From TrEMBL, chain A:
PANTHER family on file: IRON-SULFUR CLUSTER ASSEMBLY ENZYME NIFU HOMOLOG
Source organism (scientific name): candidate division WOR-3 bacterium
CDD domains named in the record: IscU_like
SUPFAM superfamilies named in the record: SufE/NifU
Pfam families: NifU_N (PF01592)
Record-level GO BP terms: iron-sulfur cluster assembly
InterPro entries attached to this UniProt entry: NIF_FeS_clus_asmbl_NifU-like (IPR017787), NIF_FeS_clus_asmbl_NifU_N (IPR002871)
Lineage: Bacteria, Bacteria division WOR-3
Residues in NIF system FeS cluster assembly NifU N-terminal domain copies: 1-121
Name used for this protein in its record: Fe-S cluster assembly scaffold protein NifU
From TrEMBL, chain B:
The organism's taxonomic lineage, starting at the top: Bacteria, Bacteria division WOR-3
Origin: domain of life: Bacteria
Keyword Transferase: yes
Residues covered by the Aminotransferase class V domain: 4-365
PANTHER family (alphabetical): CYSTEINE DESULFURASE, CYSTEINE DESULFURYLASE FAMILY MEMBER
Organism: candidate division WOR-3 bacterium
Catalysed reactions, as listed in the record: (sulfur carrier)-H + L-cysteine = (sulfur carrier)-SH + L-alanine
Designated name of the protein: Aminotransferase class V-fold PLP-dependent enzyme
Cofactor field: pyridoxal 5'-phosphate
InterPro entries assigned: Aminotrans_V_dom, Cysteine_dSase, PyrdxlP-dep_Trfase, PyrdxlP-dep_Trfase_major, PyrdxlP-dep_Trfase_small
């Protein structure tokens, strides 16, 4: 059913876990849709120095999370925001048609974590300007 | 790595004796049973012998058995065929919320064609209350269809009581017996059903042969017209070898049933009793006692079924799941939702169905291999992390209690 690449990432997912002092956290999905993903990012000098995730979902959802985390790690914020679900699915050697939505979730969760980081940073910037 | 098959409700292996019985009809006796010459004769005779064996197993008359190609066809035949045949009497059909898709979809289709369908809810164990069926009956009710046992949760329904109600009102009563015939004693006269579906591949027969029992006097319209086969009620050249195999499987089921039940019950009870001692927050689905002898089904909290199946498969263990992610439509099992289980917990569905080929050592292996898989997936699960931190889980309703 799944490509070898999907199975590889599902069997040995990279970057599973949480980042205690994450700079950004993005949570998408809910159990009613089937899957739930939480991404944690650490940012330094506009680069994602660390990316971790936790996923509740099927083989595809776990593989997608692992692939997204690998693709995003080391990238600049701008580069990471350009990661699309198509790119994720392609990197995984394709996904069954009914599992393509899992790749949407992966990219969404990453982008949400970045958004969270940018929002927090924006807030801090404003504070900094006052003092 | 030795493989362990725990998905017998999906299908069973072909029994060697069934295979042996079928072989001549794939080679030597290739004739069309409807031909009048000497090639057709042995095929015709073999089909009638098979019909007799099927009838024997369920305590029916030989002429009350109609061969079909699958359990789904038998169910479609009964639902549509009986509804059509009785349409001048009314248009109301009663069924349950946990029926197989091959009952649910035909009733949905009929509702688009002007029939009215009532779905009876079930309790948390998946049991239909016969009183609810009685209350749902109207003057226009022409068919009641309640499955004998559910393949996802193993619960056996009070068919005898429901059939008696149908009989009191003179309404034809169909039961989907695909999960029970060949596995537990099923006698149509004892149950009191007007029709009953069965499929050979769930009890060591071949795929492609199934049957519908139709009590004499129950009217039905054919789904497949244009042939004289099956008394004109089901056209199409017979799948002779498969039908012979079905007959043989019925014969073996009758001989072996007691032994099979005892062995499967023992293994099933081991899974049901021992799994919760190795994994926390695992909930049995279906009825704790009134369930199929070889059926152990659970929801394991905070993780998803397909991921469990893939990792179990890596260990050589085959099981099933009713999780949304394992279904083609990505919808949680309607059966689990009907029990009142919420979506998140339904995602953790896992179903083990046992067969002749299983032994205690298979269960030992399962009990060793499954807990680390559950643990591994939970370590990845944001729901488990939230639970561990004591956070309230969104939309998380109360789980069904363990008995």
């Amino acid at each position: 059913m799944y490509s070898e690449k999907v199975m590889e990432h599902f069997r040995n997912p990279k970057n599973v876990g949480e980042i205690e002092d994450a700079d950004g956290i993005g949570e998408v999905g809910n159990p009613v849709c089937g899957d739930m993903m939480t991404f944690y990012i650490k940012v330094k000098d506009n680069r994602l120095t660390d990316v971790k995730f936790k996923t509740f979902g099927c083989g595809a959802a776990i593989a997608v999370s692992s692939m997204v985390s690998e693709m995003a790690k080391g990238k600049t914020i701008e580069e990471a925001l350009k990661i699309t679900n198509q790119m994720v699915a392609q990197e995984l050697g394709g996904l069954p048609p009914n599992k393509l939505h899992c790749s949407n979730l992966g990219a969404d969760a990453l982008h949400k974590a970045i958004e969270d980081y940018l929002n927090k940073k924006g807030g801090e910037g404003a504070k900094g300007a006052k003092t | 790595m030795p493989k362990i098959y725990l998905d017998h409700s999906a299908t069973t292996p072909l029994h060697p004796e069934v295979k042996k019985a079928m072989e001549p009809y794939l080679t030597e006796f290739f004739g069309n049973p409807q031909s009048l010459h000497s090639f057709g004769e042995p095929a015709k005779k073999a089909i009638e012998e098979a019909r007799h064996k099927v009838a024997q197993l369920i305590g029916a008359k030989t002429e009350e058995i109609y061969f079909t190609a699958s359990g789904a066809e038998s169910n479609n035949f009964a639902i549509k065929g009986i509804a059509w045949a009785y349409q001048e009497k009314g248009n109301h059909i009663i069924t349950s919320a946990i029926e197989h898709f091959s009952i649910l979809y035909p009733t949905k289709t009929l509702s688009k064609w002007g029939y009215e369908v009532t779905q009876i809810p079930v309790d948390k164990f998946g049991v239909v209350n016969p009183d609810d069926v009685r209350k749902a009956i109207k003057k226009t009710t022409i068919l009641i269809s309640i499955m004998h046992a559910n393949n996802e949760i193993g619960t056996i329904e009070p068919i005898k009581e429901i059939a008696q109600i149908a009989l009191d009102y003179g309404i034809p009563f169909h039961s989907d017996g695909v999960a029970t015939v060949g596995q537990v004693p099923v006698k149509v006269s004892d149950l009191g059903v007007s029709s009953l579906s069965l499929a050979g591949h769930t009890f060591y027969g071949p795929k492609g042969a199934a049957a519908l029992y139709l009590k004499k006097g129950t009217r039905i319209m054919p789904l497949i017209e244009g042939g004289i086969q099956e008394g004109g009620r089901r056209g199409g050249t017979e799948n002779v070898a498969a039908i012979v195999g079905l007959g043989k499987a019925c014969e073996l089921a009758e001989q072996e049933m007691e032994k099979r039940i005892q062995q499967q019950k023992h293994l099933r009870n081991r899974i049901i009793q021992e799994l919760p001692t190795k994994i926390d927050r695992v909930y049995l689905t279906g009825h704790p006692e009134k369930r199929l002898p070889g059926h152990a089904s659970f929801c394991i909290e905070f993780i998803e079924g397909e991921a469990m199946l893939l990792l179990l498969d890596d260990e050589g263990i085959a099981a099933a799941s009713g999780s949304a992610c394992t279904s083609k439509a990505l919808k949680a099992s309607h059966v689990l939702l009907a029990l009142g289980i919420d979506h998140a917990l339904a995602q953790g569905s896992i179903v083990f169905t046992l067969g002749e080929d299983n032994s205690d050592s298979d269960i030992d292996t399962l009990l060793v291999k499954l807990p680390p898989i559950v643990d591994r997936l939970r370590q990845m699960s944001p729901l488990y992390a939230k639970f561990k931190k004591g956070e309230k889980l969104e939309g998380d309703k109360e789980c069904i209690p363990k008995k």
